[in-house]
Structure formats: C-alpha cells, structure tokens
Amino acid sequence: MTGVVFLLAPGLHLLDLAGPAQVFSSADDFGHRYETVYVAEQEDVPTAQGIGLRAETAWPELTADDLVVVPGWRSPALPRGPVFSRATLERLVAHHAAGGTVASVCSGADALGRAGLLDGRRCTTHHELQDELARRYPRAAVVPDVLFVEDGRVLTSAGIASGIDLALHLVAVRHGAFVAARVARTMVVHTRRNGGDQQASAMLRYRGHLSDAVHRAQDVIDARFADPLPLSRLAADVGLSERTLTRRFSDATGLTPLRYQQQLRLEHAEHLVGQGATVEAAARAVGFQDARMLRRLRARPTSS
C-alpha cells in the first residue's frame, strides 16, 4: 500500500487535485494499491471553482514509500505571504529527509520553495509563474516550458492538467509503462506525455494573435496537417491570395504556412517516436514521404 497525501491550500484548483487523484485511484482499481488522504490546515477548504472540500487536519503516519502532493491554487502571481504554516512546511521537509517523495502541481511549487526543497534542484511551474518562481528562489534552477521535472525525489509540474502527466510518470516508474498506459486509457487521456514536452502544443503556441484569416488557415492546417496542402488550396480555403496569406500568416505567427505545418508534423512525429515508433514509421504517419525531412527537422534547434 502506497499512501498519497494531498496537501490542500485554500483556493486550490480542482483539476490540480482531481487529475492526479484519479490516476492513483485508477491504478488502485488495477490492483496496485494506493490510499489517498486529503489534509489541510482547516477542515473546510474552498476551491477556485466554487465547490467546498472537506479535509483531515491530522496527518497520517508516513513512510519512505509514500508521496505528498501539493496541488496549486488560483492566483495571477505567487502569493506574497505563506499559504501554509511553518509547521506544515516542516512536515514536507521531514518526509523528504526520511526518504519520501514530494511533488507539486502549478503554484504548489511555491510551498516547496518556502520549505527549502527547491534549493539546488531543477524544477518547473506554470509558464505564467516560472519567472517569478525563479526570482523568489534564486537557488533553484527553474526549467521553463516543460511539463514536469524530477530531481532528488522532488517533482514539480506545470499548470493544471500537467499534474496528470506527473502522476502517470510516477505510476510508470513504480509499476511500468504498460500500467501507466492502461491508466491513461481508462481515463481517456490521449497519452502519457514526457516531462520534457512543451507545456503548450504548436496548435496553441501560435494562436495568440488577432487575425481571423490566419486563425481560419490554422484551423485548416490543424485538421489536415498530414495531407498535402498546396498554398494555392489553403489560400482559396480562406479567401485570400497566396501572397496575402503568406504575409499575414508570417506577421501573425512568425512562420510561413508550410513551416507551421512542419511544426505540427514534427510534434506529432516526436510523440509517435516517444511511444516506440521508428523514425521511418513516424515520418510516414505524419505525411512525410520518407524520414529524411523528419530527421532534418529534428536536428534543427527548437527555436527555429
């Protein structure tokens, strides 16, 4: 039996909590025994989504096999003052010192930072908070734009849904990739993403603009990225000339339509390779005629 203690802060995000809790609950359903416990400094815990939760105020006895998870809470920035008392933070430190594992989701990393558990370690958090986390805890090495980081039995993950990825990773480490995949399947999660994957996919990273025509073009490419998409056809689909589409697309995203399509193909191919496909098979699946172009794209710097 592995104990998973969720340390709840007022205003916590439900998915920061429910996602990882569901992972461990599903693993328990498959015979890998987990017991989830919810503790807080007060019995009634309000959430950011408006529903109240009830938690224990007494901590269970923990062993080195147990895990403590700190879900994040709603805040446009990390809180100025401590969310948890010094006594609670000392419990985190003591559990880790005894050989246990501690983890956080999103802004929960601030609690680990206040406890001193990020000092000298690599860590991450939600992309909107990572710069502030780095300023607040200069002895930590904040890794930007990744899903989760594991360093010395301290795991930190990005925002909201990335807590599911972190929990699936822990299940995979303890019970193997097959069990993690089985849990992901029963949760109808697309895949167990790797910790180094970017927090936002290409479909999201290049959408922060106000051009309706470019959004329409991206909709077409997103839906048909594995198909041949001549610029003439794409321009006709969105009602622009090829020259105007290329100019507007580049102004809005910094990419040409072809480069955007290649980004989507590369991202999906990397996922397939990560799941065990050969480079050749992944290249064909995402629309490349052979693996040469995929290999060239994989060799480019990620910022290109």
UniProtKB/TrEMBL annotation:
<dbReference type="InterPro" id="IPR002818">
    <property type="entry name" value="DJ-1/PfpI"/>
</dbReference>
<protein>
    <submittedName>
        <fullName>GlxA family transcriptional regulator</fullName>
    </submittedName>
</protein>
<keyword id="KW-0805">Transcription regulation</keyword>
<dbReference type="InterPro" id="IPR009057">
    <property type="entry name" value="Homeodomain-like_sf"/>
</dbReference>
<dbReference type="Pfam" id="PF01965">
    <property type="entry name" value="DJ-1_PfpI"/>
</dbReference>
<feature type="domain" description="HTH araC/xylS-type">
    <location>
        <begin position="215"/>
        <end position="304"/>
    </location>
</feature>
<dbReference type="InterPro" id="IPR052158">
    <property type="entry name" value="INH-QAR"/>
</dbReference>
<dbReference type="InterPro" id="IPR029062">
    <property type="entry name" value="Class_I_gatase-like"/>
</dbReference>
<keyword id="KW-0804">Transcription</keyword>
<dbReference type="Pfam" id="PF12833">
    <property type="entry name" value="HTH_18"/>
</dbReference>
<dbReference type="InterPro" id="IPR018060">
    <property type="entry name" value="HTH_AraC"/>
</dbReference>
